[in-house]
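ERR on first pass: missing label on line 2. Operator R.T. fixed the label and resubmitted. Corrected input:
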Amino acid sequence: MKLIEEKMHIEEKLKILTDAAKYDVACTSSGVERQGDGKSIGNCAKAGICHSFSADGRCISLLKILFTNECIYDCKYCVNRSSNDVPRASFTPQEICELTIEFYRRNYIEGLFLSSGVIKSPNYTMELLYTTLYKLRHEFHFRGYIHVKAIPGADKLLIYRTGFLADRMSVNLELPTAEGLKALAPHKNRKNILTPMRYVQTKMVESKQELALYKNAPRFVPAGQSTQMIIGATPESDYQILNVAESLYKKFGLKRVFYSAFVHVNEDKALPAKTGEGPPLLREHRLYQADWLLRYYGFEAAELLSEKEPNFNIYLDPKCNWALRNLEFFPLEINKADYYALLRVPGIGYRSAGRIVKARKNAVLGFEDLKKMGVVLKRALYFITCSGRMMYPVRLEEDYITKNLMSTKERLPREVREMGYRQISLFDDVKFGGGNLW
Amino acid sequence: MKRVYVAEDTLEGIFSAIYDAWKTKRDADGAGIALKGQMERELFCEYTQTEPDRKKAAAVERMIKKHLGMETYKDICYALLSEDEKKADAVLGTMQAARKILNSTKIMEHLACPAVQKVFALSRKVSNEAHCFIEFVRFKEITNGILAARITPKNRILTCIAGHFADRFPNEDFLIYDETHRIFLVHRKGRPWFLLESEETDFEMLKDELETEEKFANLWKIFHTSISIKERENPKLQMSHFPLRYRANVLEFDEK
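pass 2 clean. output:
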């Protein structure tokens, strides 16, 4: 094995190790603003920058590769599991640095996303990742974005040091619950995953305090921490998943939780049977919508779903669904309602809510004005009044509104629409798939 | 009678015309600005040519910065970089509207005013296009290690993206050529960037790629193909994020 590897061309390695890394969802380069220093190469933009889009329509922002796809673990859902007979390869730190710099110079990428299979031991792997980042930052003077995986089980000191070189660090939760993990990833355990997550969180807080004291203190993972979990490989309900996400945001201070619709790459009796329907993209989409509501709209998981109603409605987006079950909250008067109340109206996003609050200082707003501000009236009209009047005489009645809302088409992202969900008409209020945020 | 000043389509030219228009009539409808070579004559208008004048332009620039604020100044400049025959008129209209409100630095929030709306829309259009090119510019390494790129934008966005690339690559010599407007953005290692307009350009220089270039281009294409998940493939989604018109000089979309 070793012999073949040494002779392998860089082209071949790149192909294998990109192929092995592609199931990782996050490709964002956001969360940190860093100007050039006039000497090194690179800077970072707060909102992140996408540089291309692959054939599946996902954005390409970072050079997303594995250091190696050799792995001592045998996780059943993973293409790199040790029992799979796939070609294996490993980069050297030098190769990764050269690729990153040369791609970056040509404006192909925004930085590096480095993950890895576990080779020999977690510590050995983490050390390789650390060496690579150190080389890239200090020998190649790279100031662009770096996202690195923390390998569960690796020594704290290694994670600590790596954190000062990276912008974002992530530990994959892999599956929403500990039981799922036990069933599909027998060599991993929940505790090992949460420990580094907690550790990174603590160090981030410390680093921030230090920065408040000393302006030039080194920054530990300035763009924050993220994680991802696979959806649809294990039988958890949306309610469970959303609760997990919520506690990750609240208790672990994560920046993002990514959901990855389960893609069949292995045959295993522990995995759900292949159905031919493709990955559960609509479910993934609903989870992202709900995730948005948690992060930007002040919703809580328990408001959106419950034990009795544990899964999202496939016909209605989570916000409409909530509004219909809480009609006593409406109608809201646009010229008076509180910002956070406005956020709860279907058809009003956080941008238009902000505009409304600003604009109503100068004038009394009518429905025409709302339209100009980007409010989707065909959805909002059932829930709002302007100067005490509704747009049309409508009844505030669940069945009636549901029926009307269903007849207006939801703008689902293409990837969901094209994957066989075309027959149903749905609504939506946040445009997903807008590369930067992913 | 309405007096229309005919300006050259440059920042300096338009600012000079605004200066003249502002001097004569400060109210809306009293004065207007048309662009040389792209105006339609209207009835009951008096047309006057305005020559670009550095002093006049500087005065207008100062005035906008002082009274309307830096944010508005940026919006106005971006709007003036667009290709729209009414852009100068809209800027003048915005400035006139700003006189009537209490806090003139908040003028861009008054979207009910048609002129402000126009400036806002144009500025957004230009900054969106500029952002796309920050994403989609592709450099090639040519002789002497110079990085060269070629783009075909609708608006004159080089000014908007120059700062970004100069900050990012302080130690690189790079060129970006705007084919539509025939302007070069030139950056030399450790120096400030500048724009170079030229009627006749020698493109041969830009084609002189280094041998290593093919290797990296090929590696990038390999990456670009391998990163896609087959089960999720979706050309239409890709198209909506990366429209055809931006693909002209982007290597991963070159026909093989």
